[in-house]
């Protein structure tokens, strides 16, 4: 049955009641009126009584107050369907217009009906007209309400000057109250307690309730939460004030996650919404969203958001748009764009921005850059910092707004957003001045902007300002740089955490390296899933840096970092499998990890991959080896150049292009890496004119850099006076050192010098030992000399059989004198 039909019956009952009107009006209690049906029945009696005015005027006005002053009129209509709602609103306004002839305050109530009306029934123009009628009839509440709405531009067009004029037109309690709200919103709290005390002197019940709500608002803003909670509870208990219900529910919800508390909060929000606090629907919708919107049910949230949207909540409309645009369970782009438009219509700047981004991207709706630009400009007109910053980006990159970059306009927009304390825009403006994007760098302005960003806790500003202290742009101060990195690290900025850890580990800021202090920083960054920090934690566990060595932990964190795309960690994992650190040798895994690092462009991964191909870790492929080694060489890695030089020097593929080696060795030298290759080139004139002095120079340089083969060649130069004055002591020193590192030729020479006491005190036993080691490695001359030792009993017991054994071995390896002794012929 329609409300119209039901209400007609109520009207008939009111008109034909056998009771005196006074008794009819007095039979409705406040609790009864919470029932929408009873409310409409009582309203029918109010309509009947209004028609009989001025008779029973006190009782009629009392019933009017009961019906409208506690939000019960809203509760009576909130869940009505569209047809019943329209009938309800038309009937209410019609009766109020009749009532206002006798009680002008009803004009303000008509204005409130148009302000709070749902959908298309909201009418700002009519609201303003009826407020003006109330003002003409000296209704003080109407003066204050219109002044406040104009001041903030709520529903009405914003006009601060006219709004303030109305609010200052008298010192009525209502004007004082609303002026007080403006002071609270501005953060001007000093005079509020005295104002509250003065306002509480009123005897008007409606004013008293509103003064207590004002006091609660003050307590909220000054973070006196428990006092606010107590006051709101009082208002809920005595007046069922809708805003008090809403705030009490919000406080309870924030203070406890217990199901009972959460349920109580939901009930308070529901009651608040039913009395007219639309924001409560937003809370009900938002907190009804499942933890995982992608997979959970959003039905309940949509229910509340749709009710909020019905009553012009731009937050609800915007949330509905987001759900329909992005939640997989209810995807509907058409609905999403509809609600986005509703939110924009209701004044949502977030919705303007969202739609602009969608129109720029062109995925969820047809691309429309012109409309996107207009939306961003409208949002900027509303002083939305994001819009200024976004426009700055578009102007900077010459997209959407303009066909070519307009850097001056971009900077202007960044600076407008920066003036509104938008951190990203502050960073962008600073970037323009720091790097001279618009012209010459202006480091002073850059510093000023970055310092402003630091004050707003911008981690980007902190790190950029730190860089300015690092490179001396402001002043060179590694301590100040560290302090800024450390400040950003405290805000969980992973890059800064890693950098602060690096400072601590190496002592850049205080010359006091402290790996133990650095490790917790790396660990914190790792817990934030920052791959660079995960790598550092793995490195620390691998090498016992700042923490005890732990192969399992090292591998664990290397793996995390590698999965996060850290190429260094991939390399380290490859090396672990190559060198059996914490795991068994696995050539394939070593190869695969190096391949991953190489594919990411990491030079060392490319080098190792080339090395694996060159030396056949899994397969030998010198063509692929050279491709990867060249990539590493192009990246400036000198060891790759050495490896390519060796390829040509030692002619792995028998292509007779040894001259090419010199160029690669020379490039490696420019990278401050030298090994025996350059010495060989100069000694034998490979790719360069022969020069023994240069040969010795490079042999010795490489030897001092711990290249074992170079140690051998350096010893050879000293032994034979090649490019340097003959010096047997130096010769032995270098041979002995190379021998210790298993260089076979050096082992032979060290043994020979020890046997003969050249350059070293004679020690035949040790000399024989070195000859044995070289001979075991098939060094032909060592085998021949060892045979001679056994033949002559030199340092060993004489033995012709053993002597012949070694002569035969030497002959097998092509030693000419051994071949003659054993009757061999060359080639046989």
Task: Note the topology.
Elements: H1 3-15, H2 21-26, H3 36-51, H4 57-68, H5 72-77, H6 82-100, H7 105-116, H8 124-136, H9 140-152, H10 160-167, H11 173-186, H12 192-199, H13 205-221, H14 225-239, H15 242-255, H16 259-274, H17 279-286, H18 299-310, H19 314-326, H20 333-345, H21 349-361, H22 369-381, H23 385-397, H24 407-419, H25 423-435, H26 443-455, H27 459-470, H28 478-490, H29 494-506, H30 515-527, H31 531-543, H32 551-563, H33 567-579, H34 587-599, H35 603-615, H36 622-634, H37 638-649, H38 659-670, H39 676-684, H40 692-704, H41 708-720, H42 728-740, H43 744-756, H44 764-776, H45 780-792, H46 800-812, H47 816-821
Helix pairs in contact: 1-3, 3-4, 3-6, 6-7, 7-8, 8-9, 9-10, 9-11, 11-13, 12-13, 13-14, 14-15, 15-16, 16-17, 17-18, 18-19, 19-20, 20-21, 21-22, 22-23, 23-24, 24-25, 25-26, 26-27, 27-28, 28-29, 29-30, 30-31, 31-32, 32-33, 33-34, 34-35, 35-36, 35-37, 36-37, 37-38, 39-40, 40-41, 41-42, 42-43, ...
């Amino acid at each position: 049955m329609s409300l119209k039909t039901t209400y007609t019956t109520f009207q008939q009952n009111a008109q034909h009641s056998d009771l005196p009107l006074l008794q009819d009006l007095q039979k409705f209690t406040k609790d009864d009126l919470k029932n929408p049906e009873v409310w409409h029945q009582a309203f029918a009696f109010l309509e009947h009584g209004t028609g009989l005015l001025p008779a029973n005027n006190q009782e009629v006005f009392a019933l009017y107050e009961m019906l409208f002053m506690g939000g019960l009129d809203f509760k009576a209509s909130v869940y009505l369907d569209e047809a019943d709602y329209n009938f309800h609103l038309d009937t209410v306004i019609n009766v109020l217009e009749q009532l206002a002839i006798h009680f002008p305050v009803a004009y303000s109530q008509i204005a409130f009906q148009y302000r709070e009306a749902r959908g298309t029934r909201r009418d700002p123009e009519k609201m303003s007209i009826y407020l003006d009628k109330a003002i003409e009839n000296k209704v003080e509440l109407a003066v204050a309400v219109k002044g406040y709405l104009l001041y903030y531009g709520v529903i009405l067009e914003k006009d601060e000057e006219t709004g303030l004029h109305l609010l200052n037109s008298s010192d009525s309690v209502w004007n004082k109250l609303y002026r007080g709200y403006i002071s609270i919103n501005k953060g001007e709290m000093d005079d509020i307690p005295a104002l509250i005390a003065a306002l509480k002197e009123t005897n008007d019940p409606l004013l008293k309730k509103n003064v207590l709500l004002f006091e609660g608002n003050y307590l909220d803003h000054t973070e006196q939460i428990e006092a606010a909670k107590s006051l709101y509870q009082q208002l809920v208990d005595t007046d069922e004030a809708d805003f008090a219900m809403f705030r009490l529910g919000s406080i309870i919800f924030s203070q406890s996650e217990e199901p009972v508390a959460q349920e109580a909060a939901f009930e308070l929000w529901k009651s608040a919404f039913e009395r007219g606090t639309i924001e409560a629907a937003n809370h009900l919708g938002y907190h009804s969203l499942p933890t995982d919107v992608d997979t959970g049910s959003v039905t309940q949230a949509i229910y509340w958001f749709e009710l909020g949207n019905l009553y012009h909540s731009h937050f609800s409309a915007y949330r509905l748009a987001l759900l329909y645009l992005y939640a997989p369970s209810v995807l509907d782009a058409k609905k999403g764009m509809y609600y986005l438009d509703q939110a924009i219509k209701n004044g949502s700047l977030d919705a303007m921005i969202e739609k602009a981004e969608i129109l720029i991207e062109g995925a969820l709706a047809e691309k429309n850059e012109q409309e996107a630009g207009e939306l961003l400009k409208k949002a900027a007109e509303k002083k939305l910092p994001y819009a200024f910053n976004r426009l700055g980006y578009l102007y900077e990159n010459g997209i959407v707004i303009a066909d070519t970059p307009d850097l001056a306009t971009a900077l202007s927009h960044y600076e407008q957003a920066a003036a509104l304390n938008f951190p990203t825009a502050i960073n962008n403006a600073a970037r323009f001045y720091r790097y001279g994007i618009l012209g010459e760098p202006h480091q002073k302005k850059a510093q000023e902007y970055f310092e402003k960003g630091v004050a707003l806790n911008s981690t980007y500003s902190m790190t950029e300002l730190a860089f300015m202290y690092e490179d001396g742009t402001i002043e060179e101060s590694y301590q100040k740089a560290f302090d800024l990195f450390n400040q950003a690290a405290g805000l969980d900025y992973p890059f800064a955490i890693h950098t602060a850890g690096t400072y601590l580990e190496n002592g850049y800021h205080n010359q006091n390296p402290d790996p133990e202090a650095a490790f917790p920083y790396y660990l914190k960054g790792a817990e934030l899933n920052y791959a660079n920090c995960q790598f550092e934690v793995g490195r620390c566990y691998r090498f016992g840096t700042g923490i005890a060595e732990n192969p399992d932990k090292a591998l664990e964190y290397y793996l995390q970092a590698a999965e996060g795309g850290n190429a260094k960690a991939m390399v380290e994992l490859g090396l672990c499998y190559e060198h059996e650190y914490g795991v068994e040798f696995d050539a394939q895994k070593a190869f695969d990890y190096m391949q991953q690092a190489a594919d990411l462009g990491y030079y060392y991964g490319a080098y190792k991959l080339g090395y694996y191909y060159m030396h056949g870790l899994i397969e030998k492929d010198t063509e692929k080896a050279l491709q990867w080694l060249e990539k590493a060489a192009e990246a400036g890695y000198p060891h790759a150049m050495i490896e390519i030089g060796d390829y040509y020097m030692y002619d792995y593929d028998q292509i007779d292009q040894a001259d090419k080696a010199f160029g690669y060795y020379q490039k490696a030298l420019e990278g401050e890496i030298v090994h025996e290759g350059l010495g060989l080139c100069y000694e034998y004139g490979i790719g360069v004119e022969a020069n023994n002095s240069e040969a010795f120079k490079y042999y010795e340089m490489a030897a001092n850099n711990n290249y074992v083969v170079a140690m051998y060649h350096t010893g050879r130069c000293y032994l034979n006076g090649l490019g340097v004055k003959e010096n047997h002591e130096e010769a032995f020193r270098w041979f002995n050192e190379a021998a210790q590192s298993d260089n076979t030729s050096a082992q032979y020479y060290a043994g020979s010098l020890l046997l003969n006491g050249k350059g070293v005190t004679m020690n035949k036993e040790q000399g024989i030992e070195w000859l044995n080691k070289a001979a075991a490695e098939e060094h032909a001359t060592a085998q021949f000399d060892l045979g001679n030792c056994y033949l002559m009993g030199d340092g060993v017991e004489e033995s012709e059989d053993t002597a012949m054994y070694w002569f035969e071995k030497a002959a097998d390896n092509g030693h000419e004198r051994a071949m003659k002794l054993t009757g061999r012929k060359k080639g046989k």
